[in-house]
Specification:
There is one protein chain. 43% of the residues are buried. The protein is α/β, with parallel strands linked by helices and 192 residues long. It has a nine-stranded mixed beta sheet. Strands 6-5-7-10 form a four-stranded mixed beta sheet. It has helices at 12-21, 32-37, 49-58, 61-67, 77-81, 179-190, and strands at residues 2-5, 26-29, 40-43, 72-75, 83-86, 91-92, 97-103, 112-121, 134-139, 141-143, 149-155, 157-165, 168-171. The chain has a single domain (2-190), classed as 3-Layer(aba) Sandwich (Rossmann fold), CATH 3.40.50.880.
Length: 192
């Protein structure tokens, strides 16, 4: 069973639909037992960091996330909340990845919205994926390049678009909105 973490952000339903299209059973839940029992957990995210972290803390989900030993994937805001902190609302985050989230400089339009391709990729999430493939982004904040980066992209500056430490993975892009390439990346995660 695949669990999608239920909290006060959007996008859970489109992630669930993507997982089910790949042939996996899936639930949206904030129940600790279900989350810890799941084969994989996905932490979706479309929203604002400060209120999302407050919801996680108020509901004890911050502690549950840190207990999960199975493969865990944060998407967009979910990935950012797994870092040390974000400039969005000057928010302290979960601290799984020892790196920070920053606001893009406004030398080009912000948010970064639309399709962009990878400049580097590495690791199991990108098995059989080529650099020249585009994925879909919607974000104003970015994760700095760091030792956990497994994929990079360039928009205004080079930044981390996928990350991995132990069983924790994150993607800044939305695999559930990234057509066949996104489905392939999501499938690679579900096969871990």
């Amino acid at each position: 069973m695949i669990a999608i973490l239920k909290y006060n952000t959007g996008n859970s339903t489109s992630v669930k639909n993507s997982v089910e299209r790949l042939g996996y059973e899936c639930i949206i839940t904030d129940n600790e037992t279900e989350l810890l029992k799941a084969d994989k957990v996905i932490f979706p995210g479309v929203g604002e960091a400060k209120s999302a972290m407050k919801h996680l803390i108020d509901n004890g989900l911050d502690k549950v996330i840190l207990k999960i030993k199975k493969p865990f994937l944060g998407i967009c805001l979910g990935m950012q909340l797994m870092c040390e902190s974000t400039e969005e609302g000057n928010t302290k985050c979960l601290g799984i990845f020892n790196t920070k989230v920053k606001l893009f400089p406004s030398t080009k339009p912000v948010p970064h919205v639309g399709w962009n391709n990878f400049t580097t990729i590495n690791g199991l999430l990108f098995k059989d994926i080529a650099l020249n493939n585009d994925v879909y982004f919607v974000h104003s904040y970015y994760v700095e390049l760091n030792p956990y980066s497994i994929a990079e992209c360039d928009y205004i500056l080079p930044f981390c678009v996928a990350i991995n430490y132990k069983n924790y993975y994150g993607t800044q892009f939305h695999p559930e909105k990234s057509s066949e390439i996104g489905q392939s990346i999501l499938k690679n995660f579900l096969k871990l």
